[in-house]
């Protein structure tokens, strides 16, 4: 039996709602993410900034960490909500972290106003670095 259709409206709402918990005193750019697990659970995350700017944690990685801490590593979809009228797609670091958990799944990015953008993890990071590359390197060492 195929899994139920992805309820993007519910995911978008969860991503938007969790923006309210973001800690973004430096950029003022609050982001929320809602990650749908294969088992139907939804894990949310928000960005967490730091006075040491390079330590800022994105919403997407925060959602992945929440899921993994709950024992979940298989995902069906992620919705990302950001401010303004242009959808923000995941940064390079988040693309690599999402690609750690194959198979690829759809990514929808929702601005506060305007059109959402839909892509998927594999398209966002073609040629991702992964465990097979590590293995081949080790075998040669
Ligand atoms: O997809 C994105 C893009 C940016 N940010 C965060 C990082 C930083 O806290 C702020 C500005 O870059 O937005 C995310 O959480 N997700
Ligand atoms: Zn990111």
From TrEMBL:
It catalyses: cytidine + H2O + H(+) = uridine + NH4(+); 2'-deoxycytidine + H2O + H(+) = 2'-deoxyuridine + NH4(+). It comes from the Bacteria. Substrate binds at residues 47-53. SUPFAM superfamilies: Cytidine deaminase-like. Zn(2+) binds at residues 58, 91, 94. Its EC number is 3.5.4.5. One of its GO terms (cellular component) is cytosol. GO terms for biological process: nucleobase-containing small molecule metabolic process; pyrimidine-containing compound metabolic process. Transmembrane segments: none annotated. The active site is at 60 (proton donor). Residues 6-132 form the CMP/dCMP-type deaminase domain. GO terms for molecular function: cytidine deaminase activity; identical protein binding; zinc ion binding. The keyword Hydrolase applies. Keywords: Hydrolase, Metal-binding, Zinc. Its cofactor is Zn(2+). NCBIfam families: cyt_deam_tetra (TIGR01354), PRK05578.1 (NF004064). This enzyme scavenges exogenous and endogenous cytidine and 2'-deoxycytidine for UMP synthesis. Belongs to the cytidine and deoxycytidylate deaminase family. This is Cytidine deaminase. It comes from Sandaracinus amylolyticus.
